[in-house]
Amino acid sequence: MPENVQERKPKISASRKLMLKSLMVAKAKEELEQEIVDKEEEKHKYLAERAPPLNTSGLSLAQLQDLCRELHAKIDVVDEERYDIEAKVMLNKREIKDLNIKVLDLRGKFKRPNLRRVRVSADAILRSLLGSKHKVSMDLRANLKSVKKEDTEKKRPVEDSDWRKNVEAMSGMEGRKKMFDAAKGSAQ
């Protein structure tokens, strides 16, 4: 097998490849220049057809004024058409935008930017908010309230009595006085 493996020689030499590439670029450049010339000729032909040259020699003042009025009327018509076309284009763009939004909503996929996880300390956040003038170090855990398990487990003792008796005992002014006295006693 190793005897049959030969290095593949390129079909075209490097100099020939470079020459062909330069010929292709030259041909593309010629075609581009010809296309520009063709567009200019088409533009001149269209303008000659749509706007013939004006012959103002030998016209009286009244005829020149009539000619100006006609030109202004034509300009007004063209401006109206341009405005209508621009309005249609804006409407179509808005409709395309709305449809694109609907398509994204139906797909349920939105392009999410790749976010990097950044670790910032509380001191760095304070420096960015307050500026570099303030040197404040903040220990967030120092401000937390400590809770003891005993406090949470201690609750009012639950009485196993009938709730109706408790309601009857606390009803009226006497019951309120008992509640007030009980609260006053526990506060002292």
From TrEMBL:
Q: Which InterPro entries match?
A: Troponin, Troponin_I
Task: Say yes or no: keyword Metal-binding present.
Answer: no
> Could you give a GO molecular-function term held by this entry?
actin binding
Name the source's superkingdom: Eukaryota
Tell me the keywords, alphabetical order: Acetylation, Actin-binding, Coiled coil, Muscle protein
Renumbered residue ranges of the record's region Disordered: 169-188
What is a single cellular component term in the Gene Ontology annotation? troponin complex
One biological process term in Gene Ontology: skeletal muscle contraction
Q: Does the keyword Nucleus apply?
A: no
One protein family per Pfam: Troponin
Q: Which residues form a coiled coil?
A: 22-81
The function of this protein is: Troponin I is the inhibitory subunit of troponin, the thin filament regulatory complex which confers calcium-sensitivity to striated muscle actomyosin ATPase activity.
State the similarity comment.
Belongs to the troponin I family.
User: What is the name attached to this protein's record?
Assistant: Troponin I, slow skeletal muscle-like
**Source species, please?**
Solea senegalensis
